[in-house]
Amino acid sequence: MKTLINMRTLRLTLVALLSVGIMGCAATTRNIDPESDIHYDANYDFSDKKAIVDDLVGSLLTTTQINTSAGKPILITYGIANETSEHINTGGISDDIRLKLIQANKYRFLNREQRVNVNAETEYQQAGYVAVADQIKTGRQLGADYILAGTLRSIEKQQPRQWRLKKKKLVFYSMNLELTNLETGEISWADNVEIARESSQPIFRW
Amino acid sequence: MDIKIHARMRNWALIVCLLFLQACASTTTIQTARMQYFSGQPDRALETLNAANPDSKNRLLVDFDRGSIAFAAGRYRESSRALLQASSTLAQLDFISVSEQSTALVTNDWATSYRGEYSERLWVHSLQMMNFLLLNEPESAAVEARQAIRLLGTHAKALKKDWFTRALIGISLEEVKQFDSAHIEYNKLFTDADYSEGIARLAWNNAKRLDRRTAMKKIASGRNFKPFDSAIVVFVDTGRIATKHVGSIPIDIDQFIAFPIYPEYPEISKAINVSLNGKEVSSTPITTNLISVARSSLSKRGNKIALKSVVRAGVKNAIAKEARKEDTLLGMFVTAALYISELPDTRSWETLPGQLSMLVIPVKPGTHSVSVEVGSGSSSRVVTLDDINVQRGQRVFRTLNNPTPLTPALTPALTPALAPQTTPVPADTPVSAATS
């Protein structure tokens, strides 16, 4: 009788363990709100990119340090240097800032990335393949008033090695953006966004 | 009664066999790929590894091998992807698995996921820095440099003598114009490396750029250095890293504890001579003997390994005793199984070179040809890199992968306690001169 109970308990335990295992292994997919603030760990993620872009664009749109009386200032982006210890594609930040500023209709942008293609296309048109009336006219490109560039930096601290159940990590990100006047070389506007986050991971797992 | 004993015996046997089988998870694919690589077929080795579906315990070794073999084959993008995967695997393994450790207590450490030695974790960043510099992506090389600095800070004692990686950190930071950060790294390196000529020249040149006169004077220590703006930097990897062997200490007539060791080898440094446009130039290479760093890294973990082995011996002893109480035959069987399963974890990143060297050759802007002779006498090999175009202020990176035959040039000076693992003797080495 005792053995029977033991066997039953054992079977029930096995079934319970298997069920938990199968549930744990089930793959799931769901859409999430891009506006939501989700972080799986302390590292840089899309929520941080959004926060950085929103803050800096807001600052650029409300600043009075840039003279707009002569029309919309023309900007050229020279990218954002990644000085963190993570492989972060900072092109995503500069692209989003540019997009939002264009949509706000307060600044104009030159397309530096397409310059080689623009030149190639212009040369092709001037080479006689395109009717003269339809050819684009050279010497009419816009000149930039300001360079938009920045730097993303990070400082990371990990909890010292000691007896503990959780491992804590502190990351501080600082994103600096500035507008440099091409005529005077002066930094006409600058601002930065800071993000500090602590995360902890269990040291022991099953 | 008999039936009861047999049922228990069967259960015991089943548990021991299952644990044993789990501990001996197959690493055949990795071994096959390594054999292919060592016999001069890096492309086939990569095919084998790419098709592999390794268990989670050996996932890291596959990423490591893919990274180093692709690098040796001049496939830098592929190498960087594999090593990024290795970094991600390492981050995911940054915890203690209770289930794996419990299994390892009654079998051996092969039952745990391979987490890489501290030195191997550092070499992920070394290879990545080289990959990104050769791919002309200095910002990514600097990211790897910062990660390497963090690791060097955590395991300073074990990794201190990796002069090559530490100089590479300085160069990577210089490439993104972080001269101050490079200065800090060069200063630490320069002091640790005992004022070595090659390192001193790099450190002095960077200090000159920053106009740090006191530092320049200290670094030069009477030597006459000339500042340089443009240079050709050649990475040279030679030989093959040693494999881990089996060490053991008997603690009883039927029990012993086993642990991995790197046998002592005499340090053989390959001579490297450089000619620029046909003229011999003095270029002191900055070299790391990977075997020596690997050994120091393993010995840093020595206490942990020893403690675990002792605990395991206790657990195994208790299990064997319990089994002997049940039945003598069963006791013998369990003791034998536990004895056989006492294998040290000798897994390691075996496709790394034995020595990594860096040559920094100052040049004037223009097109140059560099000849590098590795080794001396009949075993020497000369590789020439032609048409290297250098702009003003530019550093152009090139690599020479295994320019000498891969036949093991190192002979163990000590015989390990148990029979050493046999290592495949590679035929000949692919000679490749790859460019950025």
Could you walk me through the main structural features you see in this protein, from its secondary elements to its overall organization?
The complex is a heterodimer of chains A (206) and B (436). Chain A has helices spanning 2-25, 46-62, 91-104, 115-129, and strands spanning 74-83, 108-110, 146-158, 166-181, 187-202, 204-205. By secondary structure, chain A is of the alpha/beta class. Chain A has a five-stranded mixed β-sheet, covered by helices on one side. Chain A is elongated, with a radius of gyration of 28 Å. Chain A starts with a helix and ends with a strand. Chain B is built from 16 helices and twelve strands. Chain B has helices spanning 2-23, 28-38, 42-51, 59-72, 76-92, 98-106, 118-134, 138-154, 156-159, 163-175, 179-192, 197-209, 213-220, 290-300, 302-326, 328-340; strands at 96-97, 230-238, 245-252, 255-261, 272-276, 279-281, 286-289, 355-363, 366-374, 381-390, 395-401, 432-435. Chain B has a five-stranded mixed β-sheet with strand order 7-8-2-11-12. In chain B, strands 6-5-9-10 form a four-stranded antiparallel β-sheet, with no helix packed on it. In chain B, helix 4 (59-72) packs antiparallel against helix 5 and helix 7 (118-134) runs antiparallel to helix 8. The termini of chain B are far apart. Chains A and B meet through strand 1 and strand 6 of A and strand 1 and helix 8 of B.
What string gives the helices and strands of chain B in order? HHHHHEHHHHHHHHEEEEEEHHHEEEEE
Question: Topology as H/E string of chain A?
Answer: HHEHEHEEEE
Give the largest interface pair and sizes. A-B, 15 and 16 residues
The rough form of chain B would be described as: elongated
Biggest sheet of chain A: strands, sense, closure?
A: 5 strands, mixed
Structural class of chain A: alpha/beta
Task: Give the helix proportion of chain B (percent range).
Answer: 40-55%
Instruction: Please state roughly what percent of the residues of chain B sit in beta strands, choosing from under 5%, 5-15%, 15-25%, 25-35%, 35-45% or over 45%.
Output: 15-25%
